[in-house]
Amino acid sequence: MDLTRRTIIITGASRGIGAATARVLATRPVSLALWARTADSLHLLTEELNSRPGVQALAIPVDVTSPEQVHRAAGQTEQHFGRIDILINNAGVGMRSPLATTDISLARQLFAVNFWGALTCIQAVLPAMKRQADGLILNVSSIIGRRALPYSGIYCSSKAALNALSESLRVELNPYNIRVIDFYPGVTRTDFLRHQLTGDASRR
pTM for this one? Predict the structure, then answer.
């Protein structure tokens, strides 16, 4: 796919893989809608990218666990750029904990971002993509969503669920010329681990 002049949404764009992806994409003329909760970092990144030739970047502070915020952000993106071509579902949170003592409330928080948040973003952009009869959804999964590791069972499960979602969506959206692909990164040099949840209820 030629990305030139495409409108691309990146969730979790303020740092880590999201910010790095935005910087790589901004090496060509492209329109970027940067979604994340951290408004200050998001605006700094947007200023940086808007200084590049041919790049249009729009910062939209949004919490992907809020359907209202997500749908509003999708509307803002389409209104500003005129279309939505690509969704990069990158927002995510990690958790390390033995399953026997995992805090279920924190596990639900993780799924709210990693799975339900991703689905909410997909639902928000699909009307635009269907009208265009064109689109690409890229779900950022993890290699351990395919082969689970001990003490990461909740995180692994959320990514395995996202993989299954992608597999189903791929068939459902094929008639609309909307492609769905998964990306399986391993360990990356970001601050992701520093921000992961501590889900061991026995240590509280």
Answer: 0.90
